[in-house]
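User: quick one, fold this
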Amino acid sequence: MSRHAALRRFTVEDHIAATVGAGCPRYPGVIDETPAAYKPIESVMAAQADLTEIVHTLKQVLRVKG
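Assistant:
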């Protein structure tokens, strides 16, 4: 979703709940980086199935903004 859509939809409290156990900032300026603002990687890769071959699946452990 777009940055502005995420800022309208999610609160700092939503972001805190979604990032329990993750090392990341938790203030209004990073709400657009909350995990729920992103499409599931499985759906993104499924949409590219005719163009790609999945060889490995990586798990995200860190997101850095800036």
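User: anything notable?
Assistant: The chain has one domain: 1-66.
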